[in-house]
Structure formats: C-alpha cells, structure tokens
Amino acid sequence: MPPLLEATDLTKRYGSTLALDSVNFTVERGITGLLGPNGAGKSTAMKLFLGLLIPTSGSATVMGEKPYENVMARTHLGYMPEHECLPLSLTATEFLAHMAQISGLPTGAARSRTADILRHVGLDEERYRSMGEYSTGMKQRVKLAQALVHDPEMVFLDEPTAGLDPVGREEMLALIRRTGKEFGISIMLSTHLMGDVETTCDRIIVLEGGEVTEAGDVSGFTAESETVYIDVYDDVESLIAALSARGLEASVDGVSVAVEGVGDTEYDQIRDALVEAGSRLRRLGPRRRRLSDIFRDGSE
Amino acid sequence: MSSPEGQVFDLGYRHYDGPREGRTRARRALFVNGVRTCFGLGRGAWAKVLPVLFLVAVMAPAAVLSIMAGLLGEVFADVLDLPGPQDYYAIVSPILLIFAAIIAPELLCSDRKSGVINLYLVRPLSSNDYVASRWLSFFAVSLVFIYAGQVVLLAGLAMGSEEPFAYLQENWAHVPRFLLAGLAIAAVTTTIPLAAASLTTRRAYASLAVIGLFVVTTVVVAALSQIDCITSPDVEQSTSGQQANSDSTPETSLAVMLGSGGPAELDNSNTVCEPELGIVGRWARLLDFGGIPLQISDLIFGEYEEELTPETELIPLPPSVAVVWWIVIVSVPAAVLWSRYRRLVT
C-alpha cells in the first residue's frame, strides 16, 4: 500500500523564488506537524498535496495519486486554509451542507453530516446564525468543520491556531487531537508554534528555507534529550565529579545539577553517584526539554 | 410499573460510508447554488428585492402590450402596429443587460473575494467544472428572465383575442423563434458579465464596467449610425405618374401630411440612403455588443432589413457578418473567463 502522502524530489518555484527545493518525505497515518518559520514552504507543500498548485518538478502523491492531475484523488481530503475562506452572509448550516455536496455527498447525507460535524466542533447553538456574526474562534471552528464535513481520510490544517487567544488556541488543539485520535482522521498540521506540535502531533517534519531539516516522531525529539534536574543540600562539586566518573554529562544549571540525555539505565547511575558523593537529596526529576529548546540549539 | 427513563447515548463520531457522487454531484451543487444566489434564495429579504424587481420589469411591458391589444381589438392593434413577440427583445434588452451586469458578477467575484474558491478547488472539482457550472447557472437564470416576458405576451395576446386557441394555432411559430433568439441573447448576457467578473474580485467594478461597456457602445454606435437620404428628382418625375395609381401606404400619406414645404411625392423607393460616415458608419454596429444578439433575433424572426431607409435607426450589419460577430463576442469573453480560472491552479 502506498504511503498516505509522499513527496518525491518535490520542487515548487514561483518566478525566481524557490519555495520548495527538491523535498523528500513520507507521511503515515496519525497527526503530523509541519513546522517552520513563515515562508519556509509549509503552505506550498500542503497546496501541492491538495492539487491547488502544480509542482515545478518532482511529485506529491496522496495514497499513490497525484491530486493535481486527478481531481477525484481529492475525494478523501479536507483542507482548512490559513486565510479567510467563509462566505459571511450564509449560515454555518447552509454553507457546510453546500460544501458536503461539493465533495460529492447526496443532499440528505450532506444535511445529516452537517448537523453531526457542527455538534462535534461545538457550534450546535449558533448553526442558524450567519457567519458574519461569529467570533474568530467560531470562524476557525467552521473552517475546521468544512474540512471534515465529508468525512475525509486526511485533513490539511494550515496554521489552525493563528489569531486565537490562549484559551481558543487550547480548545482548537483539543479539537484537533480529538479529530486525529477519536475520529481516526489523519492530519497534517502546519504551524510556526512549537507548542502546537509538542502537544498535538505524533510526528514532525521541519521545513526551513524550502528544505526538510528534520523529521521524526515528536516523542523521539523530546525523549532522547530528557534532562534530569537534581537539587541537593550539599555542595554540587562532588556530585558532578561522581556523575562525570560514570560518563554522564552533568552541569550546573542555576541551583540544580542538570544531567543530559537520561534514559532508564542512567537513573541507576545517578542513584549510585548520589550515594558515592554522600549528597543529601532534596529533589530529583526529569524535565522534558521542549521542542523550542531543540530549535534554539539548532539555530545557534 | 416502572417510570419511563431516558438514556443519553453519546454516539461519538460516526464515519460516512454512503455514496460519494464526485464531480457530477459537485457540478450540480454549484449550479443549484448559482441559481439560488441569483434569486437571493437562502439569504435575507434584501437579496430578493433586486431579482424580483427585474423580473417584474421584464414582464410589465408584455402585460401592458397584451392588455392594450385586448382592449383595442385586432384591427386597431394592427393599424397602430403594436409591438409583438418579434419586437419584444428589443424593448426589454436594456433591462436584461443591466440585470446581467448587476447579478452575474456575484456568482464569481464573491467566491474569490471570500476565499471560498480555494475550498472548491481542493474538492473533486476542476476549475473548468467550476466555471462551466457557474456559467450554466447564470445562463439558465438569464433564460428565465428572457423568456418570462415572451410567455406573458403570448398568453396575454392569446387571451385578449376572440379565439385564444385559433390565435395560438396561427402564431405558434413565434414560440420556437423566441426560444432560439433567447438562447442567442442569453449567451451574450451571460458570457460578457462573467468574463468581466473574472478580472476583479470587486463585484461593483465588474457591474460598472459591463454597464459602461453597453451604454458607451450604444451611444457611440447611435452617433456613428447617422444616415443621409437623397431623393433623386429624375426618379421622382418618372414615377410620379405611377404614384397616383398605386395605393399610398399609411407611412407615405403621413409623410405627405407632415412634409411641409418638401416635395409632395415622397417615396422611399426613390430615395437612396447612405451612411453619413461612409464605411465607418457601415461597420459601426460591430461595436454594438448589446445590440448584436438583437440582430440575431431579427434574423430568427425574419425581420432583418438590410436596406437603408429614412426610418433606419441603426445601420444593420450584413447577416453573415452579424452571425460571425455574435460568435466572436461570445467566444472571446468565454476564452478570457476560461483562461482566468485555469490560471488559479499553477
């Protein structure tokens, strides 16, 4: 079975600007984060998989098909654009039922799917109001709803948290997690916010300047670099010496001793080092490094 | 006896495994949505005002004409030469053009302005499907507005006559003619405004541009279409003998009565008319974009008069030129429309 998404030497050029430079990656089921600063080529990559753009060279395939060549390949895709895309004079119900039909659903099915999906995104009460009266958060939810109304296998969410306040952002991310885990719809989520990826995505593809700089499981990104912080009542020198003797990378971080790259076996060594140095332990605990730390390191 | 108990089930997310009808359904949905948009259906009351006003406006002249014909009776109606189905499109043409200019751009401009177009084009639908569906929806709406007056006129004239069925039997040939002529008109009133709408996201700009185009060309063509008529004295003398014998038509007797100081025997057959501006005047109607479909209509109704007479208001094109030019003014905007939407996906 072909992968859900596959980019092969995917290149997109706008005039003299190279938006994507011979990019290769595959995306499997689950929630994939497409992370990168503005202008990194995230939206371009999504639009190529949706058939809104045609590659300059290389290919972008969805379940083995090229959506820019065969429009039927888009039957099971959904798209939530970054920018405004709602006809504000319509009600959410009318708009969604229309979009469901555009996706090929018969009238009756379109209506019942509309009611279902509006309930899932939490717009049950407001469904007969024209969308011009909606708040930013509600508009974002309608945008998500129209991407899901035809029950796609894969949705592309372009900066879904843009313009939302912290509460709205958290609600949107919760909704996206539900869509991925509970509804079983695969998601590609683009964002320039590390936090969004960290809390929501299974896998991550980092785009910078039109190239893939990193790709892998989010848990791998954070787990591999788990740091344990140790606070002791005594002086830290002997502890650091004992840790270093066991080959652990220890350093002073504020009042704590930070030990990098700790896995299961390293915990035993930390215990032994504490005993050897005779340190009286006040607190010991891991702190997951945030993705933002990784990128700060990377960019330095 | 147990009291009835309600239970709430959370059905959770249900997947859709029913039919997916793809492009066919998408095209149909866009067509229906286009028609509803034109009539303001599914929107507020204000959106319906304009379409209703236009519909009334295209039917009102037909109602007035058929009432007049009914009151006057057939003989008087003939003498007064009341306009019939063959003249009706010329009467309502300005209304149809303004209607098309105002309503049609709504179908394309707002989708691009609001960004909905990007949601359409990621669904099982090509840009060609989109444009074709929108074009067809306005074409269908145009036909409703174009035929509405003719239907009222035909029904009104039939009911006003003493023998409605006999009237219909005598005049049935008007029906295929006005149906065919309506298609020629709708093709122009659909394609030109939609092509203009494809060039801007501002509906008002597109409407003004189309109205401007029709108004300016009408004025220019009228100005260029002046004709000069010369009555040759030789011909006048040689035919004056016959003149006395021949029945004088109502027009000539009217002209004689009004022709104070002029030659008493004014006859069109002795009069040679030429465009005042020569070749420019002869071809001026190529600019008459709104009027070209009316010339096609005249051809279909058998009313095409190529000869210039003192009554000629606008110098007609040769029939073959009119047909070719009609094809050009439909196909060029159609090509613009098509290529504009093709370029949305690059």
Q: Outline the low-pLDDT stretches of chain A.
A: none
What is the beta-strand fraction of chain A?
25-35%
Portion in helices of chain B: 55-70%
How would you characterize the largest beta sheet of chain A? 6 strands, mixed
Count of DSSP H/I helices of chain A: 10
Q: How large is the radius of gyration of chain B?
A: 27 Å
Largest sheet data of chain B: 2 strands, antiparallel
Low-confidence stretches of chain B: 235-266
Taking all Cα atoms into account, the compactness measure Rg of chain A is 24 Å
Strand order of the largest sheet of chain B: 1-2
* Shape category of chain B: globular
Tell me the number of strands of chain A.
13
Q: Shape of chain A from CA axes?
A: elongated
Would you mind describing this structure in some detail?
The complex is a heterodimer of chains A (300) and B (346). Chain A is an alpha/beta fold and 300 residues long. Helices cover 36% and strands 27% of the residues of chain A. In chain A, strand 11 and strand 12 form a beta hairpin. Chain B has 13 helices and 2 strands. The longest helix of chain B has 35 residues, at 46-80. Classes of the chains: A alpha/beta (300), B mainly alpha (346).
Helix and strand arrangement:
The complex is a heterodimer of chains A (300) and B (346).
Chain A: E1 5-14, E2 17-27, E3 31-35, H1 42-50, E4 57-62, E5 77-80, H2 92-102, H3 107-120, H4 136-148, E6 154-158, H5 166-181, E7 186-191, H6 194-200, E8 203-208, E9 211-217, H7 218-223, E10 227-232, H8 237-245, E11 250-253, E12 256-259, H9 264-277, E13 281-287, H10 291-299
Parallel strand pairs in A: 3-7, 3-8, 5-6, 6-7
Antiparallel strand pairs in A: 1-2, 1-4, 8-9, 10-12, 10-13, 11-12
Chain B: H1 22-39, H2 46-80, H3 85-114, H4 116-120, H5 127-160, H6 164-171, H7 174-197, H8 203-224, E1 227-231, H9 233-245, H10 250-258, E2 271-275, H11 279-283, H12 292-301, H13 319-342
Antiparallel strand pairs in B: 1-2
Helix pairs in contact in B: 1-5, 2-3, 2-5, 3-5, 3-7, 3-8, 3-12, 5-6, 5-7, 7-8, 7-12, 7-13, 12-13
